[in-house]
């Protein structure tokens, strides 16, 4: 295969990674938020490590997490990162928890 033939495969893989990371990040927050609100009566607030472990461990947290946080906080308004680094859903984010994975694709 010449390099030109590889290009669609590389683009497809990159697209899938962007979707997987974004959807996994948001679905973990949504799940934890829902459970916390039902069981404890208040929204969940997670560290990046709590979101990443068992969920996104195959991706480099130090490189990818800041991109996800920037996208979901500053571009979408779905999350809020507090000064202590903990992350929680905004009301807008909560309204999108049932969206399909494709809607959480990182840019």
Low-confidence stretches are: 1-12
* Share of helical residues: 55-70%
How many β-strands, per DSSP?
Answer: 2
Report the average pLDDT across residues. 87
Distance between the termini: 29 Å
**Main sheet record:** 2 strands, antiparallel
Sheet-strand content, in percent, reads: 5-15%
Number of helices: 4
Strand order of the largest sheet: 1-2
Give the SSE string. HHHEEH
Shape estimate: globular
Helix/strand-derived class? mainly alpha
Radius of gyration: 15 Å
Would you kindly provide a written description of the structure presented here, covering whatever features stand out?
- By secondary structure, the protein is mainly alpha-helical.
- It has helices at 3-39, 48-52, 61-75, 91-95; strands spanning 79-81, 87-89.
- The longest helix has 37 residues, at 3-39.
Descriptors:
two-stranded antiparallel ribbon; 58% helix
Summarize this entry quickly:
The protein is mainly α. Helices cover 58% and strands 6% of the residues.
Write the topology of this structure.
Elements: H1 3-39, H2 48-52, H3 61-75, E1 79-81, E2 87-89, H4 91-95
Antiparallel strand pairs: 1-2
């Amino acid at each position: 295969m010449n390099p030109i033939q590889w290009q669609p495969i590389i683009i497809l893989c990159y697209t899938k990674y962007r979707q997987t990371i974004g959807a996994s990040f948001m679905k973990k927050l949504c799940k934890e938020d829902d459970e916390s609100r039902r069981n404890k009566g208040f929204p969940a607030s997670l560290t990046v490590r709590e979101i990443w472990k068992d969920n996104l461990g195959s991706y480099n947290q130090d490189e990818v997490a800041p991109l996800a946080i920037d996208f979901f906080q500053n571009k979408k308004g779905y999350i809020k990162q507090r000064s202590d680094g903990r992350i929680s859903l905004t009301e807008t984010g909560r309204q999108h928890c049932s969206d399909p994975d494709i809607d959480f694709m990182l840019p």
